[in-house]
Amino acid sequence: MRLHRLEVAAFGPYRKRQVVDFDALGSDGLFLLHGDTGAGKTTLLDAVAFALFGTVPGARGQVKRLRCDFAEPDEATEVVLELTVQGQRMRLVRSPEYQRPKRRGEGTTTQQAKASLTWLDGVPGGQPPEGLVRIDEVGRTVQGLLGMTHEQFFQVVLLPQGEFAKFLRADTDEREKLLERLFGTKRFADVEAWFRELRVEKRRELDRRRQDVREWVARFAQVAGREAPEENLAEWVGQVRADVEGAVAETKAVEQQVRSALDSAEKALLERRNAAERVQRLRAARRRLSVLDGQKSERAQWNAELAGARRAATVLRAAEQADRCAGQLEEARTAESQRARRLAAVGHQDVDADAVELRRYAGKLREEAGALAGLVAEAEQQVRDQREIRQLVERVGEARAKVQVLTEKLDGIPQRVQELRAQLDVSNAAVVQLEALRTKETELTTAVRDAAGLPGALEALSRAEARVRAAVDAHQEARDHRLKLRELRLEGMAAELAAGLVDGGACPVCGSAEHPAPARPADGSVDREQEAEAEAAVARAEAARGAAEAAKHRAETELAALRERLRGRTGDELEAELRQVKAQVADIEAKSRQRARLSAELRSAEAETKSLTDELVAAEQAATAAETRRRTLVDRVEERARRLDEARGEHEDVGARRAHLAGLIQALDALTEARLARATAERHLAERQEELRSCLGQAGFETVDEMRAAARPDDVMARLEKRLSDAAAEEAAARAVLADPELAGISPDDEVDVESAVETARAARVAAETAVAEARAAATRAGELGRLAGRLTQATEAIRPLEEEFAELDALTDVVNGRGQNARRMSLRSYVLAARLEEVAVAATARLQAMSQGRYSFVHTDRAGAHGTKGGLGLDVLDDYSGTVRPAKTLSGGESFLASLSLALGLADVVAAETGGALLDTLFVDEGFGTLDAETLDVVMDILDELRAGGRVVGLVSHVEELRQRIPTRLRVRKARTGSTLEVRM
User: Own/partner pairs for 97-100, CB < 8 Å, 24+ apart?
Assistant: First the structure.
């Protein structure tokens, strides 16, 4: 990932739009965001993070308050970032959600968050060429190209304030949370969860199997009627089954005994019941014969009544047919009378004519009505033609009125078209002038800004000259002080040499081994260390002088450039000229904005002219066609009217006359049919009456009333026949019973004792049923216990491998989750994170040793925590000076910064290697440099210089003045509220 350009507007402390050109800043691979505390340095990093992910790092991201408090209501909060990721250059534009005043009314409304992604250098495969505008799609695309989440990005690319010092001193749980976000160990957490879920599932399965065993034991104990023991279950089951088998044998023996007694009792009962039944049959037969003898006279009456009804049935059908024919004749006479009156009502007076005459007259009327059929169709067409004539008259009037309206409209359009063309020419000319005026406006705006900056440049030059004078004086004073100290040292050189003399040793001056009077140091003498310190002070003063002179040179260059661009013009003159140009631009823009409207109106007017012309031609043609058609129809209607008047006669029209004839024909036909039907009914009635008289004579009846008196309904005849047949059958059955050989020798007075035999048999049956039930219960109980014993044995055998498997799974799950036999209390996820942390410690140690000049190294420890808490993520520091390992919390402020920065860079290396290794083209380090001394700062800067190798860009965020002196100023950004300036140096 490489950043190219950043724009922020109404974002954080920046009210006006500010632009940061990262291509220019990163040309040397190292740049500095410098400013006072609160100047908005970190806000630029927040803007980069917001453009990429829609959120900002640290606690600031939780507040979600990104809009500038001093922004104008109509100013939109926006961040624009151009960058290249994996060879794809793109532009990201994001706006956060914020409250703005309503454009109408009072109060505020919510401005919704927006995001867009535009491809600037080709479109990657599978992406829409027009880019993306949905927030979720933009977020997924950016994260997919970067290959990391926003948490990883904030720890790898943006190294925020205090985050790694916090990580350095964090306990195991906090460090684990961060590493999980960076290295994506969710799959290992899923493995831990899988083991836990599998254990729960297997435990549930095992509990279910154990519950099944307990249920089988309970059911066996319930059937056995005994309490199940806690131990020796198999022996208890065998003993219960043996006892039940003995009970089954005993009940079977008792069953055989009571069955034999039951058979004897039932045999005796059957013999007595047969004897009693024969006596009862004899008594019943004699009682029935006695009853039948008393019904002889009644049965004779039934026979006579049934014979008369059977004779009347042969005549009854003929009588019913004669009555039906008489009713039909009466209906025919009534219908004939009604239809005669209807014929007289439609205008025919000869209603007494016979059927032949009526048919002849109806045929004559049909011929006359048929001749009128064609004229009826012409009468209907006559009505349609007259209606069409009226419609054509209206159509002609409408068409002529439309022609007049269209002609009036067309008369005014040419003048309007000419005026629109003239206005469009003026607007086109304004568009041509607008670009030149805008260029001039931009140049004047820059010149006005330069004129406003001229006093500041003069003041900066004055300050730079003063600093140069002060630096020259300081340098001269340092040189004088160094010369003075050198002279003093030379004067005291004898004493310095004498201090090194040793008895018996040669003098470095005279060579003598004796030193009788060595020189003594005088007051104010100077040693080598003091002279070296003076030399260093001279070097520092010389460097400060060079820096001041360089600053003066830059101020002079900037002032000369301003004066060159101004060319002697004052700020008032430039502002007046700028106001004049802005007025011209506003006027020209107003005219140019009318071009689209005028062009559209001109095209509309020309299209309207063509449309109206076409409508006018169509209206004139429609009027001519309608008038021609009307004249043709008028001639045709007049000729047809003469023929229709002759055919209608005295009726309203031909249709009415034809309808009258149709009604008369229908009435004649109806009367004819009625008279024929009446004659037919009279003939049928005479035939049926003759047939009835013949049937009465054959059946022996004198009159119809006599026949009807003897007739009986079918159900009555059936009851009589059934009574007679039932009496005959009963008499025959009773006589057959008396003749049965089994009843020979039996008297109706004989008595048989059945009750005592019944009681004996009942007692034997109860005893047998009890014995059978007990035997069956014992056998059923034995079978059920055998079945339950088998199922219990199967369940017990089946649960043993499950218990062994679960014990193994339970122990393995505890180990994977950092419990049980896991001595270090490390879960699988912690183990993987510990390996990653060990890699980070190795990578960070290389930089920490360089920054601390070989003193400190990181040491990873996987020991368990206090009170048995999980371990594996411990991070200590090895102090080579003392040879001891101590907690990172004991480091000083500057040492903590070095350790935190080394840890951050090491972590960035490891994460980048895991995500592909090609993402760290740009790296930001936020704050912490103020805790370092000059020498350590040099070492840190050397490390950062190494980071920019291979085209990498490193951005530093700090308020330390030493870094400001090291990196020249290229860009200033002014904060909205306080007016403080943020400098971007490279």
Answer: 97/64, 98/66, 98/67, 100/73
- Is the pLDDT at 102 greater than 60, yes or no? yes
**Burial class of residue 35, CB neighbours in 10 A (0-12, 13-18, 19+):** buried
Strand partners, 110: 99
pLDDT value, residue 94: 93
CA dist 788 and 220 (Å) reads: 6
| Average pLDDT of every residue of the chain | 75
Contact assessment for residue 260 and residue 745, using Cβ atoms and an 8 Å cutoff: no
Can you give the pLDDT at residue 976?
A: 44
Verify that 448 and 340 share a domain, yes or no: no
Residue 3 pairs with which residues in a beta bridge? 83
Buried b (16+ CB within 10 A) or exposed e, 524-548: eebeeeebeebeebbeebeebbeeb
Indicate if 125 and 73 belong to the same structural domain: yes
Residues 393 and 534 in one domain: yes
Sign, CA dihedral 170-176-177-179, equals: positive
Q: Is the domain of 419 the same as that of 545?
A: yes
On whether both 99 and 20 belong to a single domain, the answer is yes
Tell me, yes or no, whether 118 lies in a domain. Answer: yes
pLDDT in tens, 344-354: 777 666 667 77
Which of residues 577, 610, 643 is at a domain's end? 610
Q: Is residue 3's pLDDT more than 70? A: yes
Domain count, the chain: 3
For residue 164, give Cα distances in angstroms to 31, 555, 857, 888, 896: 22, 39, 16, 12, 9
Using CA atoms, how far apart are residues 71 and 77, in angstroms rounded to an integer?
8
**Residue 132's domain spans which residues?**
1-157+927-937+945-986
Q: Which CATH number covers residue 133?
A: 3.40.50.300
Which range among 217-221, 300-304, 488-492, 566-570 shows the weakest confidence by mean pLDDT? 488-492
Let me know whether 319 and 380 are in one domain. Answer: no
Q: Is residue 383 part of a domain?
A: yes
pLDDT at 70: 82
